[in-house]
Amino acid sequence: MTTYEYQILRYLPDQIGGEFVNVGLVLFDPKTNFLKAGFLRSVSRVTSFFTGLDGRHLHRRLRHMEAMMDDFSYQLKNSFQFETYLKINAVTSRYLAKDDTAFQFSEVKRGIDDDLNLAFDELYSRLVEEHIPESSESIRNDYDVWQKLYRPFLEKKGVISRLKAHQVETEKDTIIFNYAWKNEIWHCYQPVTFDLKKSDSIKNKVYKWIGMLDELKTAKEELEIRLLTALPDQDEELLAFILDKLDQKVFGSAKVSVIRQNQAEQFASQVQAKIVQHEKGILKEN
């Protein structure tokens, strides 16, 4: 029996969302220099899960990584490598840049088998091929929240053309809100989904948002921020957690509140009324 190590390659296109899919597997036995890697051949289910994803780019990245791994496996097998590799993460760290946050290898895992090829096939089938979720209308990313839930109402009210991106400068960062307008202050609207499958993913996303909003304490301008959300309405405990952390909060000169999905139409009407009032005021001044 042989003890081997393996790592799962995860694709995480949205750092704030925290949702990921397993797209590859690497298995390594340092005693025999056995290295085997496999990556998804078709990315259609990945692109259907993450709306707006560039599937061709993802496919090219995976094929490139596969070619490099195959070449390195050949070198190890034929003793072309003079360096000794005792741990799998010494191998996998060669293929991901430190700042490449979209692709991440999992923690090192171990197993025992007398047939490493068979062990790889079983792990790949279970952890990669069966792991990719089918697309579901109940699970949305931030882009879907904007396109499907809020934009239609804002378009109907004729205010989409009045919204533009706004950059907020803080001491350590620049935070961009893609949908904003200004009267006396900047009104920033940010679509964000908390309608995720895993409760841990929801909590992690909340904490990441708190961290980002906390940075706004160092901003020098007054802001009104509305989080346009999709919420896990069926889970009262999680819903209460989200609202307690993010709704009706103040971060320095930024006032933050949560807009719920069933408030989308009312919200659009309120935005329209404020913009119309502001534009009338400008006309009177002129």
Topology:
Elements (H helix, E strand, L loop, with lengths): L1 E10 L9 E9 L4 E6 L4 H6 L5 H23 L10 H5 L10 E3 L3 E5 L2 H14 L12 H15 L7 E6 L4 E9 L3 E8 L5 H17 L7 E8 L5 H11 L2 E3 L2 E6 L4 H22 L1
Helix pairs in contact: 5-8, 6-7
Summarize the structure.
This protein has eight helices and eleven strands. With 286 residues, the protein is an alpha+beta fold.
Descriptive account of the structure:
40% of the residues lie in helices and 26% in strands. It is of the alpha+beta class. It folds into 2 domains: 128 residues, no CATH class; 144 residues. A hairpin with a 2-residue loop joins strand 10 and strand 11. The longest helix has 23 residues. About 2% of the residues have low confidence.
Query: pLDDT under 50 segments (min length 5)?
Result: 134-139
Total strand count, please? Answer: 11
Q: Report the radius of gyration as a whole number of Å.
A: 24 Å
Q: Report strand %.
A: 25-35%
Mean pLDDT: 85
